[in-house]
Design goal:
The protein is an alpha+beta fold and about 450 residues long. It is built from 13 helices and 21 strands. The N and C termini lie far apart (about 85 Å).
């Protein structure tokens, strides 16, 4: 009797799906209804013969996970328990290790660890592949389960094994045992450098980023700032509004900052600056690298396209897609990629993560300065630390000064502030290239 009931439940659940799809059944030749019949047959056989008892609801949920998560790296089906996680991410506060991740089923890669987080301090780096969490191999669990294992109660320990390539290109593994912490990312770190150069490191884009940057700029202005280095290295993004509002501080005249375009016309939208920008004439050098993603890339693309800033560093990550979160009837949620971001000149920020080979997505700086990621990460961490330690004049690792090639190049260019103000970006790039050739000779 039990077996018949289970089959009946399966039929009713599947009938609901077919009924939901009925309005679309004749929208094309390939409606997918034949595959739905196969899904019903597979579920019935599992219920009838699988070695352990299964629940129809669990099977349907797992099918939803597979259907949505296979679309791309950012779309996902979120069960009722994990809708809380979405709220935490929006608020910008949670218990965990402080890692921004990307991946598909069986693979999980680090976009960037959040500075000052347990992962950052332990030495986890952008590009690391997480292959094991505690006793679970990532390839054997869902991406969401993997993320959930690294979040939770503050003080709880978790062991993570990563895979990376060393400087010689040899693949190595490293093991980290970390304690989960309350992750409330610090956002803005300002400091005055030499020659009246202001420096602001923006760690993330949250609801208060723009206000913090405004306060920092006003404070630096009072200290005599005449030019600015805006550092978005390892900034993984955040809220769209914060990124757009930050760009508006430097771009005026109702210019286009970014636009979105999807398959549906409803997802085409333009985001423009205001009539006036607070700092429309401030000379700016913007630092980006492989850990700069999403909101960072929107700001970088806008400032570069409008020749409002000179970009220095490495090609950015290439996360330029728009996710829409919809709450479903039972309290679960669907996060679905509905559009992609484009810079004012029409460059698509997003890269296809499924394609192998050279990265053609992201934002390519005007001046590329290769910089070892581990050293760059340490430089940023030590620099943010010394901002609150006036006695520290330079960033150091174990007492030794870190040579930050990307930042140093920016300082060199801004020392010639009057030249930067007089020349256009192309002339600056040409002059910089000429200088580098002389150095090499």
């Amino acid at each position: 009797m039990k077996r018949k009931v289970n089959k009946y439940v399966i039929f009713m659940v599947a009938a609901f799906f077919v009924g939901s799809l009925f309005p679309f059944a004749y929208s094309g030749v390939d409606s997918g209804l034949d595959q739905l019949k196969i899904m019903i047959e597979v579920m019935a056989k599992i219920q009838d013969s699988y070695v352990e008892e299964t629940q129809p609801k669990e099977l349907i949920t797992n099918a939803l996970y597979g259907m949505v998560n296979s679309l791309d790296e950012f779309s996902e089906f979120i069960n009722i328990q994990n809708t809380k996680r979405i709220k935490e991410e929006t608020r910008g506060e949670f218990g965990g290790l402080g890692i921004r991740l990307i991946g598909k089923e069986g693979e999980l890669f680090v976009v960037t660890p959040l500075p000052n987080s347990p992962a950052y301090k332990a030495g986890i780096e952008p590009g690391d592949e997480i292959i094991q969490i505690d006793d679970k191999l990532v390839k054997n669990i869902s991406s969401q389960d993997a993320i959930d294992m690294m979040r939770g109660t503050v003080g709880e320990s978790v062991t993570v094994i990563i895979k990376r390539k060393d400087k010689k290109g040899k693949e190595i593994t490293k093991k980290f045992t970390l304690k989960k912490a309350r992750i409330v990312p610090q956002i803005v770190y300002p400091k005055m450098l030499e020659n009246k150069i202001g420096y602001i490191y923006v760690e993330d884009f949250s609801g208060h980023t723009v206000a913090d940057v405004k306060n920092a700029l006003e404070d630096l202005k009072k200290q005599g700032m005449e030019s600015l280095i805006l550092d978005l290295r390892f900034n993984p993004g955040g809220t769209l509004d914060s990124a757009i509002d930050l760009a508006k501080m430097f771009i005026g005249e109702n210019k286009l900052i970014v636009y979105t375009k999807g398959r549906k016309e409803a997802y085409f939208r333009e985001y423009k600056s205001g009539e006036k920008a607070l700092y429309s004439n401030l000379p700016i050098v913007l630092l980006v690298n492989e850990g700069s993603a999403s909101g960072s890339e929107i700001v970088a693309g806008a400032l570069q396209d409008h020749k409002r800033a000179l970009l220095i560093g490495a090609r950015t990550f290439g996360k330029g897609s728009v996710q829409q979160v919809s709450t479903l009837e039972d309290g679960s949620a669907l996060k679905l990629t509905v559009a992609k971001y484009y810079t004012p000149l029409g460059r698509m920020i997003h890269r296809d993560f499924k394609k192998k080979g050279p990265n053609t997505g992201g934002i390519l700086p005007d001046i590329v300065v290769d910089f070892d990621l581990a050293t760059a990460k340490s430089a940023v961490l030590q620099r943010t630390t010394m901002i609150y330690s006036p006695s520290k004049k330079t960033a150091t690792i174990e007492g030794k000064e870190i040579k930050d090639d990307q930042l140093n190049r920016a300082v060199e260019l801004l020392k010639a502030r009057k030249v930067l103000g007089a020349l256009n970006i192309e002339e600056i790039k040409a002059q910089d290239a000429k200088t580098e050739r002389v150095k090499e000779a």
